[in-house]
Amino acid sequence: MDGLEFDIWRGAIEGPFRFGQLNLTVNHIERPQRLSDACGGWIVFDGGKEETFVRVDHCKNIYRDRARP
Question: Which domain holds residue 41?
């Protein structure tokens, strides 16, 4: 599931949406959103570094860049 962390991040910042066969609801995204708020960041997967913590502002930039066509 390449990029799953960004799909979950999308739910955390944009709200519920359809994800494959699942309607991602507020109940699904509430906890990851709370945890991200508490630690001020998010985990992203990097091919070289594996799991990497990034600050929220940096993650927003990564997400924005990935969303561009």
Answer: 4-67
Tens-digit pLDDT profile for the chain (69 aa)? 577 888 888 888 888 999 889 898 998 889 888 999 999 998 888 778 888 899 988 888 887 887 765
How many domains are there within the chain?
A: 1
Q: How far from the centroid of its chain's Cα atoms is residue 55's Cα?
A: 12
DSSP codes, the chain? -TTHHHHHHHHHHH--EEETTEEE-HHHHHHHHHHHHHHTEEEEEETTTEEEEEEHHHHHHHHHHHH--
The alpha carbon of residue 26 and the mean position of all alpha carbons in its chain are separated, in whole angstroms, by 14
